[in-house]
Amino acid sequence: MHEFRVGEDDFELDGRPLRLLSGALHYFRVHESQWGHRLAMLRAMGLNCVETYVPWNLHEPRPGEYRDLDALGRFLDAAHEAGLWAIVRPGPYICAEWENGGLPHWITGPLGPRARTRDAVYGAAVARWFAALLPQVVARQVDRGGPVLMVQVENEYGSYGSDARYLAQLRDLLLDLGVSVPLFTSDGPEDHMLTGGGVPGVLATANFGSGARAAFATLRGHRPKGPLMCMEFWCGWFDHWGAGHAVREPGDAAEALREILECGASVNLYMAHGGTSFGGWAGANRAGELHDGRLLPDVTSYDYDAPIDEYGRPTPKFFAFREVLAAYAEEPPPGLPPAPPSLGAPVFAPVRDRVPLAEVLAALGGPETEGPLPPSFEELDVDRGLVRYTVRVPGPRQPYPLSAPGLRDRAVVYVDGRRAGVLTEEQPVLPEPVAGPAEVELWTESLGRVGYGPRTGEPKGATGGLRHERQFLHGVRARGLRLDAFDAAERVRALPFTAAPGDGAAGLYRASAEIRGAGDARLRLPGWTRGFVWVNGFCLGRYWSLGPQDSLYVPGPVLREGACEVWVLELEEAGTAVELSGVSGPGS
Ligand code: GLA
Fold first, then answer.
1. Percent of residues, the chain, with pLDDT higher than 90
2. Which helix (H) or strand (E) holds 370?
3. Mean pLDDT, rounded, for 429-449
4. Per the structure, how many domains does the chain have?
5. Residue 575 belongs to what domain range?
6. How close is the Cα of 96 to the center of ligand 1, in Å?
7. Known catalytic membership, residue 561
8. Which atom of ligand 1 lies at the shortest distance from residue 237's CA?
9. Is 521 in the pocket of ligand 1 (CB under 6 A)?
10. How far apart are the C-alpha atoms of 570 and 548, rounded to whole Å?
11. Which domain of life is it from (predicted)?
């Protein structure tokens, strides 16, 4: 048992100053069998602490229905075993380039921007969630012999709102539920963020990627006393579909880290190891200074250009950081753990059979609804996945433009069964006008809910209705397909698969990969367009030929010797085979 406290200048553990050299690692972005390896890598870099968020929407898919609530506790136990302290950031909002910033779609759907405020309905949902989650944390606090040193209140709240009453309620809730270690907030080092996001009497920390001296000076303007900590030192960055791959030069990052430590501050590397947004949980941003512009969906990889890459390998940044950290650590770091095994022989697996998308929807989709206007994804209870809207254009009538203004995010459109184009938020009008009568289907996808800024939690779907010329097309049938429907592998295997005709049509395709020497692998989908892929029932995430990501990480523990089953849910234009290859060489 230990006592950890926030002193006047330093953190104190059992009365002695302790500098936190922490690294972010999200347990939900790393296959559980690999937690031990990744935590050992953090130690080998010279860190003494690990930090994780907790994604509410992952653990409470439907109100009051919990999934794998113990995962956080198991991770904290693994951290303890690895000899690391732990910082927990339970949200309820986490940002983190995660779907909806971690908020469940069933709360932001009905509440919109009343989430993350003092709103009573939101508050009751948070209270229920925290009551379910917090025992995992409380039992593992440092004053009870566990690794947990600190717990965060909300996340960068000052970048979003100014509801001080909401933050105070959250603080009180955490205290009522038994949090006895110090609480803290974290915000950008700007006056409006620190004043909007701080809670009187609770430690404030700052998030930034460089310029530690100036950032801490701003923080000191608000908090003259207390230990300094950069809670998110952005040593890399994340990628968006359709944009370049973000890289931060190791030397530059190491110098920025040195500056933080020279200020006498503690640090949390964001990310030490980013991992992967498996399961289609990657979120999205909105472009522009005020984060209100174009949709920028996040890629599946959360490599983050972090010191430990997506494959768990040390990069040059790892070694540069290790050198900087060595000067501040109490003891020399342990050596690197053995690298995880890599796939032996590469595998080329042609698709064997497929089920057309309409039949997948018929078997795994939710109930079909009918109403005057298209319902949102939220109204159909679809978090990740797609919705098919079906509408009739009355006739006879001459051709007019068909549109879905306010579409979020993307729809492949069929008119009388023939593909007629792809609609997006920017291009919500079909290229060719449509004559009536006609039957129109819009296979609409969410590309990830926005997780940062004023548009956080905005709904998905044909939010502005469907129109022919100026006329609303009323009488819309809608049916949702949640990605978690594929968790039931027996139901997927029972679908009416038939030999793939090679026409590239959207559907669920199946391939069998003969594995010799199971281990970490890279999956490529040459010739495929966009969708989701599973290996032995484990969802690797979204793929998209748009790039920059051109392959998906397959954690070794997902593979096994012999035949491995690959499912590809292609939503636009299918390829004919998938490729698996081993992972060689150091990270870059
Ligand atoms: C903010 C958030 C994090 C993450 C980073 C960017 O600091 O608090 O959750 O989104 O931005 O990666």
1. 99
2. strand 369-371
3. 98
4. 3
5. 347-355+488-582
6. 5
7. no
8. 12
9. no
10. 18
11. Bacteria
